[in-house]
Each structure stands twice: as structure tokens, then as C-alpha cells.
Amino acid sequence: MPDPNDNNPDPNVAVRGFAKFKRAYEKRGNEIKLIRIKGSTAKTLASERFIFSGTMKTIENLMDKFEEAWEAAIEYAETHTITPQFPSQADLDYFQGIKNYYYEAFGFQEDIARSVSFMSSPPGNSSRIGDSRLSHASVPGRAILPKIHIKTFRGDFAAWPTFKQLFTSLIIEEPSLSDAERYHFLLSYLDGPALDTVKSISVTEANFNQAWAAVTLVYDNKRKQARSYIDKLLDFKPGVGKPTAESLQSYLSHVSESIVSLKALSIPQFDDYLLCELALRNLDPVTRQAFEVSIISKDYPHFNDLKEFVQGRFKVLHLTSESGVKSEPAPLKNVSGPKRPNSFTPKSHSNQALLTHASKPPREKASPKESSSLVCPLCKQQHILVDCPTFKSSTPAQRLESLRQWSGCRNCLYPFHKTKECKSKWSCKFCKARHHSDLHLGSKDSSTSSSSQSLGSTSPSPASPEFAGTHTSSTCGVLLGTVRASILDANGRAHVFRGLLDPGSHVSFITDQCARKLGKTTRPYRGHISGVNGSPLKNISGRLNISFQPPSTSALTTEVIVVPSITPSLPQSNLTSSMWHDYLSYNLSDPDFSISAPISFLIGADLYTDVLVGAPLTIHENGPRLME
482-626, what's its fold? Predict the structure, then answer.
């Protein structure tokens, strides 16, 4: 057999090489066709049934080899000049025809099995359908059926036609099954969003038809099937790096399967419908929803339908819009120079952390010459720090955080000298370190909080060992950029998750829990990802493609890596400040940015520039900045 990687310029050699691949898949295809013909004959001639039964044991292996030879022929045609071009429309029709023969052969096997009655089977030992997940009392006289091969249906519209055909043929049309048994089979073959459609229906014999109708109502939608094939075709992303045989095989599989499936739907005026679907991808969600309502009774919209609708909406909005020139609102503040966007200092002097910019110099410390009396750095009252009610009622970690901007001594809590200048013979009674006993942290906190730790430092979090990504210390006064975004699930429905923006990450991530809620199946990931300090990221669950749906623009699609967790909840504790109401007057992506909540995804450098489109806006000089 010729080497597919040998791109010989001689067209005659290329044609002869391709002929071997073609003969390979046609040989398997013809054998499948003969088995189907034999099944048709066996329905009426009992003498042919034993031969047909024997050939059916080989049909699955034949189908696997047929598809392998077909893909090999496509790959060879891609790397050589083949005339006429392969696959042509006739070739695609042949491929679909063989698949139809394959399914028809199983249908004939079912028809023959139903016509055979095994009345000699003793009660209680009747043969059952080849699936051991149900165990009910046997009914005498049931037919011996072949083992059922039905893949679990998880809500993928592209997989619905095959699932519906097999389930109808092997379960619904099987006369020896009761509706209660059919319902149990249905539940065993559904998962994810598909299973959710019947969870509210009681599992009784009388409710099977209602349950099947509920599943069919949602997924027996040819337009949704067509759109899923288009999305699968357009959203496919090849592997990063040098192309390999596996990556090209994956590409051909996705493209060929999507195109063949689209053609099998026999959509009228397909080119016009395709243009309409492509144009809808760039339409704002509000207008698109109104358009879908206007064509609710139409199976496949055309581009002219969309064009006329948008023109009508334009006229309405143009006529109803307010006249006159609208005044531009004055900006609150000018954009400041380079500054970390997530540092801030609350103005209130409560027992909350006194957070500030890491590079900001400390305040001028008081001296005995400048102050005739002691002033508490927390409540500004006339008493020393150890007598402050706020200081006493705080935890050691809160005390350390509150004193981060304080220039006094952490050992004796005297305000007019630094710790390294302290001459006191006393030290911490718990650990003998040079800090006050009221500032001592337990062993569980000592790794993440220290009186000498600089603001904004990072340390690995023991709560999330799986992901070597972004971590913040418990004493850090930094707000990381969080967002709330809608992610489309396998059925095109939007779910809102909270995530993190990190331009330092080369790729984007989502958690296992987020992937399960989206109902999407992961693909293997064989690459290597390094986290902090170059340590390899372990426990990668796989990769998949997701689409973020912004409120007023087209969806942003990217490939994400699925990991058990990304980071602990951010921020690590709720933050309060009197300045927050100024920020909440804006339309924030994450209005609850100061409230600790789980992180479900991380947007890396692959989408960062698409998400942030404007310059940073400073609301408060010492507060976090807004990013558009």
C-alpha cells in the first residue's frame, strides 16, 4: 500500500495509489450490502436465516474497517492530487448508503427475531434483551433478541437521530416488553440534560409514552440538529503545533461527519439556510430572539427572512428613537498612569483590613516631638493599641492585616520605633519569635500570613493542590479581576458562572463541576502545562470547546482545559468598604466582586484581548480600577 506521506508529483502514481484505498472501503461496503440483502431474503425464507444470523456476527467489524478505509482514502486524497476530487457528492451518497444498509440489517434481524416464538422456554428462564440492567419476572414465550448496542444519549442533537432510530427499533417496537420495562430502558440510556427532561415524570408503566414524548419534543428538532452540525464544523479547532496524522484524522472525521449529516437532512434551499445561520451568529441576542419568535412555524429560515425582519426592526427603532442630540456624561475621573488595577484602601477605619497599593510609601510615622499623646492607629482614640476594643475583638490574622500600614513595632506594639529597633527582652510566648503574642498565628495560618510578608505576595494554597495556577495569601489585600459570564451548554442554553481573568495564563481553564453542568464530554489532553515555579499541572481531566455568550455581541469560542479546581473562592473573605457604592453605579460584569464565591473558569491570554477592549478607569485613587 502506498505511503500517504509520500506526495509523489506523478498524477498516474497518485491515482493508482488512491485506487487501492478505494478498493479497500468498497470491498467492506459491498459485504455490508450483501448482508443487508441476505437479511431481506431471510425475512421470508427460513432456510436463509441461519446464514444471515452468521453474517450478522461480522457486520460490526466490517463497518469499523469500512470507516477506517474511508478515512484513509480521504487522508490520501488530501495529500495527493486526485482527479476527480474526492470525496465527490456521489462518494458521500455512497458512504451514507452503506451506513443505511448497516442499520437496515439490524432492523431485519429484529423483524426475524419477533417472528420466532420460543414457547418451549420454561417459565422463569425466558431469554431477555441483551442488557442486564433490568431484572423483572420473566414472561414465557419471549423472543431471543440480539445484544443491544445503544450509546447513552446525553443531549447532543447530533447524536439524536441514531439514538431515536435504535431505541425505537429495539425497545419501543419490541412486543415482548411492557411499558414499564421500556421506561426503565429509557432511563438507563439517558444522562445529563437528556435525563433532566424526564426527571419530573414518575416511573410508572402508564407514564412511558409521556416520558418518550417529552424527550422527543425537545430533541426531535431538525433545525437544532442542523445547527449542531454547523457549530461542530465551525467550532472545531485543530491541535496546536505541527500537524500529525492523528490531528488530520480528527479534522477529517469532524468535517466529513458534519457535512454528511447536514446533507442527510435534505434541507430545502440549503445554501440560503446556511447563510442565514451564519448571519445569525453575529446578531445581538435580543433581536435574534425576536426573529426566532417570528419564524416559530417555519422549519428552516432563509437569509431573506432574516434580512426583511432586521430591516423592519430598524424602521421601528428608527421611528421610535428619541430626537435631538444626547449629551455625553462627564467621566468621573481621568485615567491615571500605570498602576496595579486591584489594589485599594478603604476609607473607613473599622476593624477591616487597611489595604493599599504595594508600591505606595508608608505614611510618615508620628514622633514624640510631633504628638503629645498616643493615638490608636485603628480607632483614632486616645489610648495605646493593646487597650483598643477593636484590636482586642479581632483575630490574630485580622490584627496583622489591620497593622499592615502601621509603621510601629510589632513586638512591643510601641508606635515610635520599628520592630528591628525594639530593645524589649520579651517576645512571643507561643513561638518565641519577635512579635507580640496577640499577633501570633496558629500553625495552620503560619504558612500564609507573616508580619514581615509584603503586600500582594503569593503563596501556594494547600486547599487546592491540583491546580498550580493563581493563588493569593490569606493576608493579601488584592482584588483579582473576576467576571460573571454566560456559557452555552450542549443544548445551546446559557448558564452563568463566575470566573477569573488572568493574562499570564497561556490557555483557559474550567472546572470539572462546570463541565458536568454544561453536559459536554471532554476529549483527551496529551500536552504538558506548567504552573508556578515551572511545576507540571497534574490531574488534567481533558479538554473541550466552550462558547461564552456576551449580552450584546457574538459568542466567543475557545478550547479550555478541564481541571478539578482552579483556585479557592475569591476573594478569600468578604471585603467591605464605603467606596463600593461608587463602583456599583456602573454596569459591572461581577457586581458581587467583594463577596467570596467559587471560581468556575479562568480566561487566559487566548481570549483576554477579546474580553478587555477599553482603557482602565480610576474611580478612587487608592481603589481598584474598572476595565471595560
Answer: Cathepsin D, subunit A; domain 1 (2.40.70)
